[in-house]
Amino acid sequence: MSENAADLYDVIVVGSGGGLIGAYAAAARGLRTLVIEKTEFVGGTTSYSGAGMWLPGNAAEQRAGLPDTRDGARLYLDAIVGDDSPASLREAFLQAGPAMIEELEKNPRFGEFQFLGVPDYFAGQPGALPGGRTIFPQDFDRGELGDLEPLVRRPLWTERWGVDVESTMVGGQALIGRALLAFMETGNGTVLTNTGLERLIVEDGAVVGVQASSNGEPVTFRASKGVILAAGGYERNAELRRKYQPEIGDEWTQGCEGNTGDALTAGIDIGAATDLLEESWFAPGLVVPDTRPVFYTSVWSGIWVNAAGQRYMNERLPYDRAGHEMLKAHRTSDASPLPTHWVFDQRQIDNESAFAAALPVAPDVPGWFDVEKFIAAGVLHRADTLDELAELIGVPAGALTKTVDQYNGYARTGKDEDFGRGEAPWDLMTVYLGGAHTDGPNPCLGVIDQGPFYAAKIVLSDLGTKGGLKTDDHARVVRPDGSVIAGLYASGNTMAPVTGRIYPGAGGPIGSSMAFAYIAALDIAQKG
Fold first, then answer.
1. Cβ proximity of 470 and 496 under 8 Å
2. What is the pTM of this model?
3. Cα distance between residue 426 and residue 432, in whole Å
4. For 220-239, how does the pLDDT look when each residue is reduced to its tens digit (9 = 90+)?
Protein backbone atom coordinates (compact mmCIF):
# COMPACT_ATOMS: atom_id res chain seq x y z
CA MET A 1 0.00 0.00 0.00
CA SER A 2 1.05 3.57 -0.66
CA GLU A 3 2.11 5.43 2.48
CA ASN A 4 4.72 8.18 2.50
CA ALA A 5 5.11 11.83 3.47
CA ALA A 6 2.79 12.86 0.63
CA ASP A 7 0.02 10.74 2.19
CA LEU A 8 0.04 12.58 5.52
CA TYR A 9 -2.60 15.24 6.11
CA ASP A 10 -4.04 17.16 9.01
CA VAL A 11 -7.64 16.47 7.97
CA ILE A 12 -9.29 13.97 5.65
CA VAL A 13 -12.85 14.56 4.40
CA VAL A 14 -14.63 11.55 2.89
CA GLY A 15 -17.19 12.84 0.39
CA SER A 16 -17.47 16.05 -1.59
CA GLY A 17 -20.98 17.48 -1.21
CA GLY A 18 -21.71 19.52 1.90
CA GLY A 19 -18.44 18.15 3.26
CA LEU A 20 -16.62 20.58 0.97
CA ILE A 21 -17.61 23.35 3.37
CA GLY A 22 -15.86 21.57 6.22
CA ALA A 23 -12.87 20.99 3.98
CA TYR A 24 -12.78 24.68 3.10
CA ALA A 25 -13.10 25.75 6.75
CA ALA A 26 -10.23 23.47 7.75
CA ALA A 27 -7.98 24.47 4.85
CA ALA A 28 -8.72 28.17 5.41
CA ARG A 29 -7.34 27.72 8.93
CA GLY A 30 -4.06 26.42 7.60
CA LEU A 31 -4.78 22.72 7.93
CA ARG A 32 -3.54 20.47 5.14
CA THR A 33 -6.79 18.90 3.98
CA LEU A 34 -7.55 15.99 1.67
CA VAL A 35 -10.95 15.32 0.13
CA ILE A 36 -11.50 11.84 -1.25
CA GLU A 37 -14.45 11.19 -3.56
CA LYS A 38 -15.55 7.73 -4.63
CA THR A 39 -16.88 8.74 -8.05
CA GLU A 40 -15.19 10.63 -10.86
CA PHE A 41 -17.02 13.86 -9.98
CA VAL A 42 -17.13 16.20 -7.00
CA GLY A 43 -20.50 17.27 -5.60
CA GLY A 44 -22.60 14.20 -4.87
CA THR A 45 -26.37 14.63 -4.69
CA THR A 46 -25.86 18.27 -3.69
CA SER A 47 -24.80 19.04 -7.24
CA TYR A 48 -28.20 17.83 -8.50
CA SER A 49 -30.13 20.08 -6.12
CA GLY A 50 -31.49 23.59 -6.15
CA ALA A 51 -28.94 24.25 -3.35
CA GLY A 52 -31.45 25.53 -0.85
CA MET A 53 -29.94 25.81 2.63
CA TRP A 54 -32.25 25.91 5.66
CA LEU A 55 -30.12 27.92 8.09
CA PRO A 56 -32.11 30.07 10.55
CA GLY A 57 -30.84 33.54 11.45
CA ASN A 58 -28.34 33.92 8.60
CA ALA A 59 -27.12 37.18 7.07
CA ALA A 60 -29.15 36.77 3.86
CA GLU A 61 -32.35 36.64 5.89
CA GLN A 62 -31.32 39.76 7.77
CA ARG A 63 -30.62 41.65 4.54
CA ALA A 64 -34.10 40.66 3.36
CA GLY A 65 -35.59 42.10 6.56
CA LEU A 66 -36.87 38.74 7.78
CA PRO A 67 -37.79 38.86 11.48
CA ASP A 68 -36.06 35.58 12.29
CA THR A 69 -34.33 34.79 15.56
CA ARG A 70 -32.66 31.74 17.04
CA ASP A 71 -35.42 31.70 19.64
CA GLY A 72 -38.08 31.43 16.94
CA ALA A 73 -36.22 28.71 15.09
CA ARG A 74 -35.57 26.85 18.34
CA LEU A 75 -39.28 26.99 19.14
CA TYR A 76 -40.10 25.63 15.69
CA LEU A 77 -37.59 22.77 15.85
CA ASP A 78 -38.62 21.84 19.39
CA ALA A 79 -42.24 21.65 18.25
CA ILE A 80 -41.73 19.53 15.13
CA VAL A 81 -38.68 17.41 16.02
CA GLY A 82 -39.34 16.69 19.66
CA ASP A 83 -37.23 13.88 21.09
CA ASP A 84 -36.10 12.49 17.73
CA SER A 85 -32.79 14.33 18.04
CA PRO A 86 -30.93 15.79 21.04
CA ALA A 87 -31.75 19.42 21.86
CA SER A 88 -28.01 20.06 22.25
CA LEU A 89 -27.46 19.00 18.63
CA ARG A 90 -30.16 21.39 17.43
CA GLU A 91 -28.63 24.18 19.48
CA ALA A 92 -25.20 23.56 17.92
CA PHE A 93 -26.83 23.78 14.49
CA LEU A 94 -28.61 27.04 15.32
CA GLN A 95 -25.40 28.60 16.60
CA ALA A 96 -23.19 27.42 13.72
CA GLY A 97 -25.39 28.28 10.73
CA PRO A 98 -25.23 32.09 10.88
CA ALA A 99 -21.52 32.06 11.77
CA MET A 100 -20.77 29.78 8.84
CA ILE A 101 -22.63 31.95 6.33
CA GLU A 102 -20.93 35.06 7.69
CA GLU A 103 -17.54 33.44 7.18
CA LEU A 104 -18.32 32.13 3.70
CA GLU A 105 -19.60 35.50 2.51
CA LYS A 106 -16.25 37.08 3.37
CA ASN A 107 -14.74 35.05 0.54
CA PRO A 108 -15.76 36.53 -2.84
CA ARG A 109 -15.76 33.02 -4.32
CA PHE A 110 -18.92 32.31 -2.33
CA GLY A 111 -20.42 35.78 -2.73
CA GLU A 112 -23.60 36.80 -0.98
CA PHE A 113 -26.31 34.22 -0.52
CA GLN A 114 -29.90 35.03 -1.49
CA PHE A 115 -33.17 34.75 0.41
CA LEU A 116 -36.11 33.83 -1.88
CA GLY A 117 -38.99 33.29 0.54
CA VAL A 118 -39.67 29.54 0.45
CA PRO A 119 -42.14 28.71 3.26
CA ASP A 120 -41.28 26.48 6.20
CA TYR A 121 -42.86 23.05 5.73
CA PHE A 122 -44.93 22.89 8.93
CA ALA A 123 -47.27 25.86 8.73
CA GLY A 124 -49.15 26.56 11.93
CA GLN A 125 -46.47 25.15 14.22
CA PRO A 126 -44.89 27.53 16.78
CA GLY A 127 -42.10 29.52 15.15
CA ALA A 128 -42.97 28.54 11.56
CA LEU A 129 -42.35 31.33 9.04
CA PRO A 130 -44.49 31.78 5.90
CA GLY A 131 -41.39 33.13 4.15
CA GLY A 132 -39.19 30.36 5.48
CA ARG A 133 -35.52 30.36 6.38
CA THR A 134 -34.00 29.04 3.17
CA ILE A 135 -31.20 30.73 1.25
CA PHE A 136 -29.52 29.99 -2.07
CA PRO A 137 -26.15 30.63 -3.74
CA GLN A 138 -25.88 33.05 -6.60
CA ASP A 139 -25.33 31.69 -10.10
CA PHE A 140 -21.71 31.08 -11.03
CA ASP A 141 -19.76 31.41 -14.27
CA ARG A 142 -18.53 27.93 -15.11
CA GLY A 143 -15.47 29.39 -16.78
CA GLU A 144 -14.11 30.68 -13.47
CA LEU A 145 -13.29 27.11 -12.49
CA GLY A 146 -10.71 26.74 -15.22
CA ASP A 147 -9.03 23.32 -15.06
CA LEU A 148 -11.19 22.37 -12.10
CA GLU A 149 -14.43 22.50 -14.11
CA PRO A 150 -14.37 18.86 -15.31
CA LEU A 151 -14.32 17.74 -11.66
CA VAL A 152 -17.83 19.03 -10.90
CA ARG A 153 -20.63 16.50 -11.29
CA ARG A 154 -22.81 17.23 -14.31
CA PRO A 155 -26.38 18.47 -13.83
CA LEU A 156 -28.93 15.71 -13.30
CA TRP A 157 -30.56 16.28 -16.67
CA THR A 158 -27.19 16.12 -18.42
CA GLU A 159 -26.55 12.74 -16.84
CA ARG A 160 -30.03 11.40 -17.58
CA TRP A 161 -30.93 12.98 -20.93
CA GLY A 162 -27.63 14.27 -22.30
CA VAL A 163 -28.62 17.95 -22.12
CA ASP A 164 -25.71 20.25 -22.85
CA VAL A 165 -24.00 21.85 -19.87
CA GLU A 166 -24.79 25.56 -19.60
CA SER A 167 -22.04 28.16 -19.22
CA THR A 168 -23.74 29.44 -16.06
CA MET A 169 -23.90 27.13 -13.07
CA VAL A 170 -27.09 27.34 -11.02
CA GLY A 171 -28.29 25.75 -7.80
CA GLY A 172 -26.18 22.88 -6.56
CA GLN A 173 -23.79 23.26 -9.45
CA ALA A 174 -23.08 26.84 -8.38
CA LEU A 175 -22.66 25.91 -4.72
CA ILE A 176 -20.25 23.06 -5.43
CA GLY A 177 -18.32 25.05 -8.05
CA ARG A 178 -17.86 27.95 -5.66
CA ALA A 179 -16.89 25.69 -2.74
CA LEU A 180 -14.41 23.67 -4.80
CA LEU A 181 -12.67 26.78 -6.11
CA ALA A 182 -12.53 28.40 -2.68
CA PHE A 183 -11.12 25.21 -1.16
CA MET A 184 -8.39 24.83 -3.75
CA GLU A 185 -7.42 28.50 -3.57
CA THR A 186 -6.52 28.14 0.12
CA GLY A 187 -3.35 26.42 -1.00
CA ASN A 188 -3.98 23.70 1.59
CA GLY A 189 -6.47 21.56 -0.29
CA THR A 190 -6.18 18.33 -2.30
CA VAL A 191 -9.00 16.49 -4.05
CA LEU A 192 -8.76 12.88 -5.20
CA THR A 193 -11.65 11.50 -7.26
CA ASN A 194 -12.19 7.80 -8.05
CA THR A 195 -11.01 7.17 -4.50
CA GLY A 196 -13.41 5.23 -2.30
CA LEU A 197 -13.19 4.59 1.42
CA GLU A 198 -12.51 0.97 2.37
CA ARG A 199 -12.03 1.23 6.12
CA LEU A 200 -10.96 3.55 8.91
CA ILE A 201 -7.54 3.17 10.55
CA VAL A 202 -7.76 3.03 14.33
CA GLU A 203 -4.80 3.21 16.71
CA ASP A 204 -5.15 3.29 20.51
CA GLY A 205 -8.87 3.82 20.13
CA ALA A 206 -8.55 6.87 17.86
CA VAL A 207 -9.13 7.23 14.12
CA VAL A 208 -5.85 8.24 12.50
CA GLY A 209 -6.54 7.75 8.81
CA VAL A 210 -8.27 5.80 6.07
CA GLN A 211 -7.59 2.92 3.77
CA ALA A 212 -9.08 3.48 0.34
CA SER A 213 -9.10 2.25 -3.21
CA SER A 214 -7.89 4.84 -5.71
CA ASN A 215 -8.41 3.98 -9.36
CA GLY A 216 -8.45 0.35 -8.32
CA GLU A 217 -5.24 0.51 -6.30
CA PRO A 218 -5.10 0.24 -2.48
CA VAL A 219 -3.87 3.41 -0.76
CA THR A 220 -3.50 4.61 2.82
CA PHE A 221 -3.87 8.21 3.97
CA ARG A 222 -3.19 9.33 7.51
CA ALA A 223 -4.80 12.28 9.28
CA SER A 224 -3.02 13.81 12.26
CA LYS A 225 -6.06 15.75 13.51
CA GLY A 226 -9.27 14.19 12.25
CA VAL A 227 -11.39 12.40 9.65
CA ILE A 228 -14.77 13.83 8.62
CA LEU A 229 -17.23 11.34 7.11
CA ALA A 230 -19.52 13.25 4.74
CA ALA A 231 -20.16 10.69 2.03
CA GLY A 232 -23.96 10.77 1.82
CA GLY A 233 -26.37 8.02 2.75
CA TYR A 234 -26.89 4.42 1.67
CA GLU A 235 -29.76 4.96 -0.77
CA ARG A 236 -28.01 3.17 -3.66
CA ASN A 237 -27.21 0.08 -1.56
CA ALA A 238 -29.92 -2.51 -2.20
CA GLU A 239 -28.79 -4.77 0.65
CA LEU A 240 -28.85 -2.02 3.27
CA ARG A 241 -32.21 -0.75 2.06
CA ARG A 242 -33.67 -4.25 2.35
CA LYS A 243 -32.32 -4.35 5.90
CA TYR A 244 -33.45 -0.93 7.10
CA GLN A 245 -36.19 0.15 4.66
CA PRO A 246 -37.66 -3.04 3.17
CA GLU A 247 -40.79 -1.35 1.81
CA ILE A 248 -38.85 1.09 -0.34
CA GLY A 249 -35.80 -0.39 -2.06
CA ASP A 250 -33.17 1.49 -4.03
CA GLU A 251 -34.65 1.64 -7.54
CA TRP A 252 -36.58 4.91 -7.12
CA THR A 253 -34.04 7.08 -5.29
CA GLN A 254 -32.78 10.42 -6.59
CA GLY A 255 -29.48 10.01 -4.72
CA CYS A 256 -26.09 10.05 -6.39
CA GLU A 257 -24.79 6.73 -7.72
CA GLY A 258 -21.87 6.68 -5.28
CA ASN A 259 -24.07 6.78 -2.19
CA THR A 260 -23.83 3.16 -1.08
CA GLY A 261 -23.19 3.69 2.63
CA ASP A 262 -19.44 3.05 2.66
CA ALA A 263 -18.77 5.69 5.33
CA LEU A 264 -21.72 4.50 7.40
CA THR A 265 -20.54 0.90 7.45
CA ALA A 266 -16.93 1.95 8.10
CA GLY A 267 -18.13 3.79 11.20
CA ILE A 268 -20.27 0.86 12.34
CA ASP A 269 -17.30 -1.47 11.89
CA ILE A 270 -15.31 0.42 14.53
CA GLY A 271 -18.14 0.59 17.03
CA ALA A 272 -20.03 3.78 16.19
CA ALA A 273 -23.63 4.17 17.31
CA THR A 274 -26.38 4.79 14.74
CA ASP A 275 -29.86 6.22 14.75
CA LEU A 276 -32.89 6.59 12.45
CA LEU A 277 -31.55 4.31 9.73
CA GLU A 278 -35.15 3.65 8.69
CA GLU A 279 -35.57 7.30 7.63
CA SER A 280 -35.06 9.10 4.31
CA TRP A 281 -35.61 12.56 2.88
CA PHE A 282 -38.72 11.37 1.07
CA ALA A 283 -40.23 12.78 -2.11
CA PRO A 284 -42.91 11.45 -4.44
CA GLY A 285 -41.47 10.52 -7.81
CA LEU A 286 -43.17 10.63 -11.20
CA VAL A 287 -42.26 7.45 -13.07
CA VAL A 288 -40.86 8.16 -16.53
CA PRO A 289 -39.62 5.83 -19.26
CA ASP A 290 -36.04 4.54 -19.26
CA THR A 291 -34.70 6.36 -16.19
CA ARG A 292 -35.30 7.01 -12.52
CA PRO A 293 -38.39 8.96 -11.45
CA VAL A 294 -38.59 12.73 -11.67
CA PHE A 295 -38.65 14.50 -8.30
CA TYR A 296 -42.28 15.51 -8.00
CA THR A 297 -43.32 17.88 -5.26
CA SER A 298 -47.10 18.19 -5.57
CA VAL A 299 -50.03 18.71 -7.94
CA TRP A 300 -52.00 21.68 -9.17
CA SER A 301 -54.59 19.82 -11.14
CA GLY A 302 -55.83 16.32 -10.52
CA ILE A 303 -55.73 14.08 -7.48
CA TRP A 304 -53.77 11.17 -6.06
CA VAL A 305 -55.64 7.94 -5.37
CA ASN A 306 -54.67 4.65 -3.76
CA ALA A 307 -55.51 1.10 -4.83
CA ALA A 308 -59.12 1.65 -3.75
CA GLY A 309 -59.48 4.71 -5.99
CA GLN A 310 -59.63 7.05 -2.99
CA ARG A 311 -57.74 10.20 -2.06
CA TYR A 312 -55.69 9.85 1.10
CA MET A 313 -53.91 13.18 1.64
CA ASN A 314 -53.46 16.81 0.59
CA GLU A 315 -51.59 16.31 -2.68
CA ARG A 316 -49.75 19.61 -2.20
CA LEU A 317 -48.08 18.72 1.07
CA PRO A 318 -44.35 19.46 1.14
CA TYR A 319 -42.66 16.52 -0.53
CA ASP A 320 -41.13 14.84 2.54
CA ARG A 321 -44.42 15.11 4.41
CA ALA A 322 -46.19 13.66 1.36
CA GLY A 323 -43.70 10.80 1.27
CA HIS A 324 -44.26 10.03 4.92
CA GLU A 325 -48.02 10.07 4.33
CA MET A 326 -47.57 7.59 1.49
CA LEU A 327 -45.56 5.29 3.73
CA LYS A 328 -47.99 5.66 6.65
CA ALA A 329 -50.98 4.87 4.43
CA HIS A 330 -49.17 1.85 3.02
CA ARG A 331 -48.60 0.50 6.52
CA THR A 332 -52.05 1.21 7.92
CA SER A 333 -54.49 0.83 5.02
CA ASP A 334 -55.74 -2.21 3.14
CA ALA A 335 -55.53 -0.09 -0.03
CA SER A 336 -51.87 0.67 -0.56
CA PRO A 337 -50.76 3.93 -2.21
CA LEU A 338 -47.49 2.35 -3.35
CA PRO A 339 -47.71 3.16 -6.17
CA THR A 340 -50.11 6.09 -6.22
CA HIS A 341 -52.17 7.01 -9.30
CA TRP A 342 -52.16 10.68 -10.29
CA VAL A 343 -55.52 11.22 -12.02
CA PHE A 344 -56.06 14.33 -14.18
CA ASP A 345 -57.74 15.42 -17.40
CA GLN A 346 -56.79 16.78 -20.81
CA ARG A 347 -56.30 20.32 -19.52
CA GLN A 348 -53.22 19.19 -17.59
CA ILE A 349 -51.73 18.01 -20.86
CA ASP A 350 -52.79 21.04 -22.89
CA ASN A 351 -51.60 23.61 -20.36
CA GLU A 352 -47.85 23.09 -20.49
CA SER A 353 -47.19 25.90 -18.02
CA ALA A 354 -49.51 24.26 -15.50
CA PHE A 355 -47.72 20.96 -15.97
CA ALA A 356 -44.35 22.68 -15.46
CA ALA A 357 -45.67 24.33 -12.30
CA ALA A 358 -46.65 20.92 -10.99
CA LEU A 359 -43.06 19.81 -11.46
CA PRO A 360 -40.85 22.73 -10.36
CA VAL A 361 -37.71 20.69 -10.86
CA ALA A 362 -38.87 19.08 -14.08
CA PRO A 363 -36.21 18.18 -16.63
CA ASP A 364 -34.88 21.11 -18.61
CA VAL A 365 -35.37 18.94 -21.68
CA PRO A 366 -37.63 20.07 -24.54
CA GLY A 367 -40.41 17.58 -25.12
CA TRP A 368 -39.41 15.36 -22.19
CA PHE A 369 -43.07 14.68 -21.36
CA ASP A 370 -44.05 12.82 -24.52
CA VAL A 371 -47.57 11.53 -23.89
CA GLU A 372 -47.45 8.76 -26.50
CA LYS A 373 -44.05 7.57 -25.32
CA PHE A 374 -45.21 7.53 -21.69
CA ILE A 375 -48.34 5.56 -22.65
CA ALA A 376 -46.33 3.08 -24.70
CA ALA A 377 -44.01 2.55 -21.74
CA GLY A 378 -46.96 1.78 -19.47
CA VAL A 379 -46.26 4.61 -17.02
CA LEU A 380 -49.21 6.72 -18.21
CA HIS A 381 -52.75 5.57 -19.01
CA ARG A 382 -55.42 7.38 -21.03
CA ALA A 383 -59.14 6.71 -21.37
CA ASP A 384 -62.25 8.50 -22.61
CA THR A 385 -64.12 7.94 -19.34
CA LEU A 386 -63.20 7.62 -15.68
CA ASP A 387 -64.68 4.10 -15.56
CA GLU A 388 -62.40 3.03 -18.40
CA LEU A 389 -59.43 4.66 -16.73
CA ALA A 390 -60.20 2.85 -13.48
CA GLU A 391 -60.12 -0.47 -15.31
CA LEU A 392 -56.75 0.35 -16.87
CA ILE A 393 -55.12 1.14 -13.53
CA GLY A 394 -56.86 -1.60 -11.57
CA VAL A 395 -58.98 0.41 -9.15
CA PRO A 396 -62.74 0.10 -8.55
CA ALA A 397 -64.57 2.11 -11.22
CA GLY A 398 -67.37 3.31 -9.04
CA ALA A 399 -64.97 4.39 -6.32
CA LEU A 400 -62.82 6.43 -8.70
CA THR A 401 -65.84 8.21 -10.20
CA LYS A 402 -67.21 8.95 -6.73
CA THR A 403 -63.85 10.31 -5.59
CA VAL A 404 -63.51 12.58 -8.63
CA ASP A 405 -67.09 13.85 -8.30
CA GLN A 406 -66.54 14.71 -4.64
CA TYR A 407 -63.25 16.44 -5.40
CA ASN A 408 -64.82 18.40 -8.26
CA GLY A 409 -67.36 19.75 -5.81
CA TYR A 410 -64.52 20.98 -3.61
CA ALA A 411 -62.79 22.56 -6.62
CA ARG A 412 -65.93 24.48 -7.54
CA THR A 413 -66.47 25.81 -4.02
CA GLY A 414 -62.75 26.41 -3.45
CA LYS A 415 -62.57 24.44 -0.19
CA ASP A 416 -61.07 20.97 0.10
CA GLU A 417 -63.26 19.61 2.89
CA ASP A 418 -61.18 16.45 3.27
CA PHE A 419 -57.55 17.60 3.32
CA GLY A 420 -57.43 21.40 3.15
CA ARG A 421 -55.46 21.61 -0.08
CA GLY A 422 -54.62 25.20 -0.96
CA GLU A 423 -54.69 26.63 2.57
CA ALA A 424 -51.01 26.52 3.64
CA PRO A 425 -48.25 28.91 2.43
CA TRP A 426 -46.40 26.03 0.77
CA ASP A 427 -49.53 25.00 -1.12
CA LEU A 428 -49.74 28.48 -2.62
CA MET A 429 -46.02 29.09 -3.10
CA THR A 430 -45.87 28.96 -6.88
CA VAL A 431 -48.85 31.28 -7.12
CA TYR A 432 -46.74 33.82 -5.23
CA LEU A 433 -43.89 33.18 -7.64
CA GLY A 434 -46.08 33.71 -10.69
CA GLY A 435 -46.70 30.08 -11.53
CA ALA A 436 -49.69 28.70 -13.39
CA HIS A 437 -52.92 28.08 -11.52
CA THR A 438 -56.49 27.00 -12.12
CA ASP A 439 -59.44 29.26 -12.91
CA GLY A 440 -61.50 28.33 -9.85
CA PRO A 441 -61.74 30.04 -6.46
CA ASN A 442 -58.87 27.97 -5.05
CA PRO A 443 -55.76 28.13 -7.27
CA CYS A 444 -54.64 24.71 -6.04
CA LEU A 445 -57.84 22.90 -7.04
CA GLY A 446 -58.69 22.25 -10.67
CA VAL A 447 -61.86 20.50 -11.81
CA ILE A 448 -61.37 17.09 -13.49
CA ASP A 449 -64.11 16.88 -16.10
CA GLN A 450 -62.59 17.34 -19.57
CA GLY A 451 -61.73 14.03 -21.22
CA PRO A 452 -59.78 12.16 -22.13
CA PHE A 453 -58.63 11.29 -18.62
CA TYR A 454 -55.15 10.25 -17.56
CA ALA A 455 -53.41 8.41 -14.73
CA ALA A 456 -49.68 8.71 -14.15
CA LYS A 457 -47.69 6.53 -11.77
CA ILE A 458 -46.26 8.08 -8.60
CA VAL A 459 -43.81 6.12 -6.44
CA LEU A 460 -42.16 6.77 -3.09
CA SER A 461 -38.81 8.25 -4.04
CA ASP A 462 -36.25 10.02 -1.89
CA LEU A 463 -33.43 12.55 -2.04
CA GLY A 464 -31.26 10.23 0.03
CA THR A 465 -31.41 8.25 3.25
CA LYS A 466 -31.02 10.33 6.41
CA GLY A 467 -30.19 7.95 9.26
CA GLY A 468 -26.55 7.55 10.17
CA LEU A 469 -23.79 7.70 12.75
CA LYS A 470 -24.66 9.36 16.04
CA THR A 471 -22.65 12.45 16.92
CA ASP A 472 -22.37 14.93 19.75
CA ASP A 473 -22.77 18.69 19.36
CA HIS A 474 -19.18 18.99 18.08
CA ALA A 475 -19.98 16.56 15.21
CA ARG A 476 -17.80 13.92 16.89
CA VAL A 477 -18.98 10.36 16.29
CA VAL A 478 -19.95 8.52 19.46
CA ARG A 479 -20.28 4.91 20.59
CA PRO A 480 -23.52 3.41 21.96
CA ASP A 481 -22.43 4.35 25.49
CA GLY A 482 -22.01 7.99 24.45
CA SER A 483 -18.22 8.01 24.53
CA VAL A 484 -16.46 9.86 21.71
CA ILE A 485 -14.47 8.03 19.04
CA ALA A 486 -11.41 10.26 18.97
CA GLY A 487 -10.51 11.67 15.59
CA LEU A 488 -13.81 10.80 13.88
CA TYR A 489 -16.51 13.26 12.79
CA ALA A 490 -19.62 13.00 10.62
CA SER A 491 -22.02 15.28 8.77
CA GLY A 492 -24.72 15.19 6.12
CA ASN A 493 -26.53 11.93 5.43
CA THR A 494 -23.68 9.93 6.95
CA MET A 495 -24.75 11.46 10.29
CA ALA A 496 -27.94 10.76 12.25
CA PRO A 497 -29.99 13.86 11.41
CA VAL A 498 -30.23 16.92 13.62
CA THR A 499 -33.86 17.28 12.51
CA GLY A 500 -34.83 13.73 13.44
CA ARG A 501 -37.67 12.36 11.31
CA ILE A 502 -38.63 15.84 10.14
CA TYR A 503 -37.82 17.95 7.04
CA PRO A 504 -38.21 21.48 8.48
CA GLY A 505 -37.99 23.48 5.27
CA ALA A 506 -36.40 23.62 1.82
CA GLY A 507 -32.69 22.97 2.12
CA GLY A 508 -32.85 21.02 5.37
CA PRO A 509 -30.42 18.32 4.14
CA ILE A 510 -27.85 20.68 2.62
CA GLY A 511 -28.00 23.28 5.38
CA SER A 512 -27.42 20.73 8.13
CA SER A 513 -24.73 18.93 6.10
CA MET A 514 -22.78 22.16 5.64
CA ALA A 515 -23.26 23.24 9.26
CA PHE A 516 -21.98 20.05 10.84
CA ALA A 517 -19.04 19.76 8.45
CA TYR A 518 -18.22 23.33 9.51
CA ILE A 519 -18.66 22.44 13.21
CA ALA A 520 -16.32 19.48 12.73
CA ALA A 521 -13.66 21.64 11.07
CA LEU A 522 -13.82 24.19 13.88
CA ASP A 523 -13.47 21.50 16.53
CA ILE A 524 -10.48 20.03 14.73
CA ALA A 525 -8.82 23.43 14.27
CA GLN A 526 -9.30 24.39 17.92
CA LYS A 527 -7.26 21.39 19.01
CA GLY A 528 -4.15 23.05 17.60
1. yes
2. 0.95
3. 10
4. 999 999 999 999 999 999 99
